[in-house]
């Protein structure tokens, strides 16, 4: 078997071949183009008379869909196989974008498509890292999550950039772009199925994983802080990315510039800094990265000063949010003392993320329509600052727990 030394097989519980790992990584890149394409929804609805509220309504339907699929993955991941469920999620994403592509007006059809997208992205977003987490050690989890997240962010970030490029320069419609996204998601489904087949795990005969009952134990542990933090960060991320086309209106800037800068920054940082970041104590790294994220969102106030402000804002957001997400994801799992509750912690972490990433755009759309884009920027800066505070509270909670365990 051929090994890639960069994948550090010494950190895994069982030998994962490089080719098998890349089945997961490339599949994640392809299916992530589906979530990235939601950043084009605002442009899609504006093309036939809709506005930010219509975009937010579709994404709210997506949030409802995620609740259903995340619950199913949380219950049945060990019985069915997490990668198999991620593959099914990719199919639902394809269906959702086919539904959106078939609609050229604001109607209930859009909400149905949004719900299908939510079901698909929710299943993938929990099941794919769960499939990886089940195959690695606690020590290697941050490293592997960082590498996985690099491919995932490549799909998320480059998808809207490619869309803007094609729409502005090649005359492609958003409908046609959504058809291509559907094909990408179907391709991802086959790769994720192949990963599960080539990296099998012993199945759990229990029909239902009791992740809901684990909530009291999770809330009593320091893991409660990263679970709240991910929702706050997701609000910042979705607010800035979903309405980037609105934020650049009247400035002469292009949304594609922000998407490209963000994607390149995140992918480069996650790939080149993964090993270094995984070795540093997250208690210090997480607050520092969140400060960078807040600075990046603050710079959006000065978009009128030109492309330099836009590029710097995107780079700081990419460096901050892009690197901090896999770190707090690992914190949410590692802060649980009982390994039996780790899957449950990851499930609640993803639940919290979807509240922010799909729930906030409706509020953000209303803020823009009612009060303007300056108000939206102010809100996301505030939410990012609150996340910084929670990072410090988590550090204090961990120190307290460690002190109690020694007494």
TrEMBL record:
Keywords for this protein: Membrane, Transmembrane, Transmembrane helix
Keyword Transmembrane: yes
SUPFAM superfamilies xrefs: MFS general substrate transporter
InterPro entries: MFS, MFS_dom, MFS_Exporter, MFS_trans_sf
Pfam hit, one: MFS_1
PANTHER family reported for this sequence: QUINOLENE RESISTANCE PROTEIN NORA
Sequence ranges assigned to domain Major facilitator superfamily (MFS) profile in this UniProt record: 1-396
Protein name, per record: MFS transporter
Keyword Transmembrane part of the UniProt annotation: yes
Listed transmembrane segments: 21-41, 56-76, 83-102, 108-132, 144-165, 177-195, 223-241, 253-273, 285-303, 309-328, 348-369, 375-393
């Amino acid at each position: 078997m051929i090994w890639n030394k960069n994948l550090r097989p010494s950190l895994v519980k069982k030998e994962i071949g490089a080719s098998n790992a890349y089945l997961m990584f490339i599949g994640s890149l392809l299916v992530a183009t589906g979530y990235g394409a939601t950043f084009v929804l605002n442009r899609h609805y504006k093309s036939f008379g809709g506005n930010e509220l219509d975009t937010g309504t579709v994404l709210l339907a997506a949030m409802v869909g995620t609740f259903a699929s995340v619950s199913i993955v949380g219950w049945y991941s060990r019985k069915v196989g997490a990668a198999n469920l991620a593959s099914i999620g990719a199919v639902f994403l394809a269906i959702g974008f086919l539904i959106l592509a078939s609609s050229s007006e604001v109607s209930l059809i859009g909400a149905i498509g949004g719900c299908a997208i939510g079901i698909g992205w929710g299943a993938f977003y929990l099941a794919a890292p769960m499939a990886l987490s089940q195959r690695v050690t606690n020590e290697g989890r941050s490293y592997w999550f960082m590498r996985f997240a690099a491919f995932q962010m490549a799909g998320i970030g480059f998808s809207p950039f490619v869309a803007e490029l094609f729409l502005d320069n090649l005359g492609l419609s958003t409908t046609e772009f959504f058809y291509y996204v559907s094909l990408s998601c179907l391709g991802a489904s086959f790769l994720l199925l192949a990963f599960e087949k080539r990296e099998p795990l012993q199945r759990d005969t229990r029909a239902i994983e009791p992740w809901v009952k684990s909530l009291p134990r999770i809330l009593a542990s320091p893991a409660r802080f990263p679970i709240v933090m991910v929702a706050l960060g997701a609000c910042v991320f979705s607010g800035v990315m979903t309405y980037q086309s609105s934020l650049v209106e009247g400035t002469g800037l292009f949304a594609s510039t922000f998407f490209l800068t963000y994607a390149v920054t995140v992918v480069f940082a996650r790939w080149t800094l993964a090993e270094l970041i995984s070795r540093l104590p997250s208690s210090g790294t997480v607050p520092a990265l969140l400060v960078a994220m807040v600075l990046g969102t603050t710079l959006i106030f000065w978009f009128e000063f030109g492309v330099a402000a836009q590029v710097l804002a995107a780079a700081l957001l990419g460096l901050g949010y892009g690197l901090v997400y896999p770190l707090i994801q690992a914190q949410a799992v590692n802060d649980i003392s009982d390994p039996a509750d780790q899957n449950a912690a990851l499930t609640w972490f993803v639940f919290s993320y979807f509240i922010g990433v799909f729930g906030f755009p409706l509020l953000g759309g209303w803020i823009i329509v009612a009060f303007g884009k300056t108000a939206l920027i102010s809100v996301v800066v505030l939410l990012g600052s609150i996340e910084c505070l929670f990072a410090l509270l988590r550090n204090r909670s961990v120190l307290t727990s460690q002190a109690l365990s020694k007494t």
